[in-house]
Fold:
Amino acid sequence: MKEKTLKILLENKGEFISGEYISEKLNISRSAVWKHIKAIKDEGYAIESVTKKGYKLIDYPDVMESEIIKSKLKTNIIGKEIIYFETIDSTNDYAKKIAKKSSEGTIVISEEQTKGKGRMGRFWHSSKKDGIYMSIILKPDILPNDAPIITQIAGLSVVKALNKLNVDAKIKWPNDILINNKKVCGILTEMSIEIDRIDYIVLGIGINVKTLDFSEDIKNIATSILKEGYNLNRLDIITLVLDEFENLYLDYINTKNKQIIANMCKEYSALIGKDIYVIQFNDRKRAKCIDINKEGNLIVQYEDGSIKELISGEVSIRGESEY
Ligand code: BTX
Structure:
């Protein structure tokens, strides 16, 4: 009942709702309403109580609970269903378990991950209440070969959302988001294929929002939004990212226009025009990044003048942080 009371307050944020209305709607006594309101206040919600007027929700803490996120989202499919955890091993692993029976757009989100995953078995540092750790279940009608575009769309939604919040974030091909050349966000796309069609995609997004302490091995390459001087609310970031994601995703599904996505990737690229190293099998080759093509692949020119298209792999930016 506390959750239902909170839901009513959220739906009417900024307006007074009488205790009588809540008690009738939920079929509970006025004193039960009062008890729930007190418990909600104790969780950090700012609620004004005025005799004869009732209760008004003024502000909420930076928690990621499903109802709060839903109350702020403008989306039609993404986040209609949100599964929230205080702690979990990996939101991607959980999302994969429930993907088949879940509807498209279902989100799994957690305040922390004990076994956050990066690509190729790597780890993702996911400390409690410092970041956004979420996975989106998608069932797009596209060919498995076109799945990498979903990662690009996810990267674009994060940079576009951050730029709207005045954070100068860029995409480092293929799937890192950087602020001041340090990694603030990573994306892990996993998919299940049946014959030649996509059964589901689990799109994992990890964003460091308030993390200040990273472990020794990543402290030179990782950063958080707060560490770079931007004090933002996780809730504002997540809702904006999901709104941006739905717009870009549905546009792509409807038009299948890869060029538009590639153009945006170029606009927000941290690499175009930069001197880089292309890293392949422990070998680092000097090159210049010259373009991103329609398929979203990186076009580089090596020092011998040869031009190559990189479909996957790792690069680092020379000179700057060399990350
Ligand atoms: P990646 O393989 O590109 O990046 C992983 C590498 O990045 C690690 O090897 C480490 O060097 C560095 N790293 C680890 N943690 C962090 C961090 N918090 N910030 C910056 N750098 C870090 C990137 O893989 C994909 C990450 C996806 C994370 C999301 S969170 C929700 C979902 N669930 C899950 O288990 N993973 C995804």
Summary: Residues 66-267 form a domain with the BirA Bifunctional Protein; domain 2 fold (CATH 3.30.930.10). Residues 90-92, 113, 116-119, 122-125, 133-135, 176, 183, 186-188, 204-206, 208, 218, 221-222 surround BTX (CB under 6 Å).
